[in-house]
């Protein structure tokens, strides 16, 4: 699930995730997690 979290939240494309390093995925996952939480707390849509 966490591998595709950046794609689901619009942070990265599927192609980018496929070739990303572990460090890039970690950063993108954190950004995606924060984006989802911020959007959820406002009641909006991503």
TrEMBL record:
Superkingdom per UniProt: Bacteria
Name this polypeptide is given: Uncharacterized protein
Record organism: Enterococcus faecalis TX0630
């Amino acid at each position: 699930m966490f591998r595709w979290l950046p794609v689901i939240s619009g942070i990265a494309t599927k192609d980018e995730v496929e070739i990303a390093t572990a460090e890039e995925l970690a950063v993108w996952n954190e950004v995606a997690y924060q984006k989802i939480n911020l959007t959820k707390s406002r009641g909006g849509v991503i």
